[in-house]
Amino acid sequence: MVPTYWKDLIIGDIVIVQKDERIPADLVLISSEHKDGVAHLETSTLDGEKHLKPRTALHETLTSVQIELLPDQEIKTLKSSKKYVHSIQSIKVELEALVSVQQPQPSIYKFEGFVTLNPKQQDVIHEANKINPAPQAGSGETRTIPLTIKNFIFKGTKIRNVQWVAGIVVYTGPHTKIQMNGA
Prior knowledge:
4-stranded antiparallel beta sheet
């Protein structure tokens, strides 16, 4: 795991965000600590609402990210020594996907796209080198799954009710929904 500033994120990066941290870019949720891939967002910075909004990872990507957290006692020791950065001990990501989303738009109620799991080599090249270098074709079956607002996590919101989420960056900088809404 490489700690990264939000300004250095690029579309296609996989990001791990822990509970109570601000989301650094607009993401498609691919996994969470919850076995069903559910996470709840606090969106008060975006829409002023205090109630939590549920989001769900794609069923097909739930197991693509595996995270082992540090034991509670070790976290307490690190926090007391002021050397605490995060509670993640190890991360394993196994995902070969091509994510295609609509052009950025300000509506916080709409989001459409699709993810192709195990894309064929020509599918990756066809995307005009958006992924560089192009991965080799996967061994699994190619499947395309639709994305909706229920899979979308807004930049600037906070994760609640789970220890971590994993997402793929789809919009950054001025193209995020919070920036397009002047927040």
